[in-house]
Design goal:
Helices cover 45% and strands 22% of the residues. With 295 residues, the protein is an alpha/beta fold. It folds into three domains: 66 residues, Winged helix-like DNA-binding domain superfamily/Winged helix DNA-binding domain (Arc Repressor Mutant, subunit A, Orthogonal Bundle); 94 residues, D-Maltodextrin-Binding Protein, domain 2 (3-Layer(aba) Sandwich), CATH 3.40.190.10; 103 residues, D-Maltodextrin-Binding Protein, domain 2, CATH 3.40.190.10. α1 packs across α3 and α2 packs across α3. The two termini are 46 Å apart. Belongs to the LysR transcriptional regulatory family. This is LysR family transcriptional regulator.
Length: 295
């Protein structure tokens, strides 16, 4: 069987699918815009299908393009494996693009990457930190291989593997006291200001799902986009917060913050997430198995 498709055509297709227009994709591929456009047109001609919906300079995958995307990505990944399998001993290591949400990224990721690099010395790790919504979108766009995310993942196109359990604490300023005449409980906390994460963060979802029903009313809120900023905001006396014990344990032990211990015990799962339809290279699959074994 003879095929006229080329890896360069598929590389051009993936670049445009990821970046959404010809100019940045051409720059990434080291081609002129005209050459990249010709490569895409030839690919569409050979397949007998249009792969993108075009609106001005923007190109968006249509149904045919979405069908080709995981197949093209797998083919190029396997082609890279072949090159690495037969490369010289000084060839570049396997690349693992790893994302992490805020708390994991700040408090668990550095040590985890150190362990990973010791166990898999041939793997070159590229790590970045974003909120959960951004990480899921990056997985969908093939910009990440794996993501470490706090909380549940509801997108059916993603596969989540349990990793760890993260205990959640309610904390207040160190000089905080229960309001006069109020019983120590969730109802009293409903009258306080709460410091919360931005929409799209799993910490925001956990506040809305775990804490709001207990408060009995919607409290005043103040929003920050990092856990560290929330911890400092609580320390500055701006309100209460629901945060990971990882982020505040030392500050509570040192007396900088006050932990409010109320039933029930609150926690969230930490998961390793990947795109279900995407082919996972063997080395990345080994890393996933290793992470799963650390649950």
């Amino acid at each position: 069987m003879t095929t006229h498709l080329t890896l360069r055509q598929l590389q051009a297709f993936l670049a445009v699918a990821r970046l959404g227009s010809l100019a940045p994709a051409a720059e990434e591929q080291g081609l002129s815009r005209a050459a990249l456009s010709q490569s895409l047109q030839e690919l569409e001609r050979q397949l007998g299908a249009t792969l993108f919906d075009r609106s001005g300079y923007r190109l968006r995958l249509n149904a045919c393009g979405e069908t080709l995307l995981p197949l093209a990505d797998e083919l190029l990944t396997r082609a890279l494996q072949i090159e690495q399998q037969f490369a010289r001993a000084d060839a570049l290591p396997t690349r693992l693009r790893l994302g992490a949400s805020d708390t994991i990224g700040n408090y668990l990721l550095p040590r985890l990457v150190a362990e990973l690099m010791t166990r898999f010395p041939d793997v070159h790790v590229e790590a970045e930190i974003h909120n959960s919504q951004t990480l899921c979108a990056q997985l969908q766009r093939y910009e990440l291989d794996l993501a470490l995310i706090e909380g549940e993942v509801l997108d059916q196109g993603l596969t989540a593997t349990p990793w760890q359990e993260d205990e959640l604490w309610v904390v207040a300023p160190r000089d905080w006291t229960w309001p006069q005449g109020e019983d120590a409980g969730w109802a009293a906390l409903g009258k306080q200001r709460w410091i919360i994460r931005e929409p799209g963060s799993s910490s925001r979802v956990q506040f809305e799902q775990l804490v709001l029903p207990l408060l009995g009313e919607t409290p005043a809120t103040l929003t920050f986009n990092t856990s560290e900023a929330i911890v400092h905001a609580v320390g500055a006396g701006l309100g209460c917060a629901l945060v990971s014990a990882l982020a505040v344990r030392e500050r509570v032990d040192d007396g900088e913050l006050l932990r409010l211990s109320l039933p029930p015990r609150l926690s969230r799962p930490l998961t390793v997430v990947r795109l279900a339809s995407r082919y996972l290279a063997p080395r990345a699959a080994e890393v996933l198995a290793w992470l799963s074994g650390k649950a």
